Amino acid sequence: MEQTGLARRIRERxxxxxxGAIGFAPIGPSAHSVxxxxxxxxxxxxxxxYMERTAEDRLxxxxxFPWARSAVVAAVTYLPYRGSRENQEGVVGHVARYAVxxxxxxxxxxxxxxxxxxxxxxxxxxxxxxxxxxxxxxxxELAARAxxxxxxxxxxxxxxxxxxxxxxxxxxxDLDLPVGEPxxxxxxxxxxxxxxxxxxxxxxxxVVDSTRCISYLTIELRGSxxxxxxxxxxxxxxxxxxxxxxxxxxxxxxxxxxxxxxPSDDLRxxxxxxxxxxxxxxxxxxxxxxxIERTRHRGLVRNALIVAANTGDDEALxxxxxxxxxxxxxxxxxxxxxxxxxxxxxxxx
Length: 349
Description:
single chain
């Protein structure tokens, strides 16, 4: 009864802190070890070497935290707006919805640290370690164990009432807390996410090939994007939401009122040409505390140049001429490609 009461107070405090749904998961070996090792063995992590380097720790967090017994898992809804991207006046290019506001790593870390401090006050001597997409933790599996949802065929966690527009964070603790009941998979025969992915990055249900995913190409890949994949980006400057946009479970999700996840004025004011022109110092000052920082200056300019070519944005392509002799080889090569492609397109028309 004591731990049940503590769990209730943790949930209540988590809600007050803006951590949304809270669940409790047991700590133990992953049930997905075979799948993860197969995924890595097929090279589907691409250049994300850290995935292989930390694989064993991810498969059992007790290797790093032998004292951990439970995880307090938070699922925070971040959807900044409903409706089509085209109707969001002022939001430049197409940026994944989780990235239009403050950096969720910073937002959730602040809230999780506050909740961890609350846990220690409520249970003096308790050990805690908070993470939000920053450590070797299989967050979605912990969330599923906590009863916060099921794995969709696009590998996103879908909440019990339907909603994959969520960010996950967790607090590992040495407390024994009452664990949640797993939620049954409700994807059924639906293949909307597989059918809609423009790059075929979901080759089979519950598997994502990162090397073909627009989010990976625009964020994680540090060098040049292969020419054969550039058209696949369409008009996505950072990340991709397509597999979530088409998911039937997301049709009735309400937009959040959490101001930390709403589009920033810095993003609203910028055209695609602005992103092509942006200098390194300005990039860091503007996007340093947003998820867009992860792609780094080179990556954002590279992406903007590709989108300019894909969409025929004359202003952005004109700005790209100044990038044709950029000292950065990736930016320079991408600019020359974008200008060549635009010329070929105009000549062909």
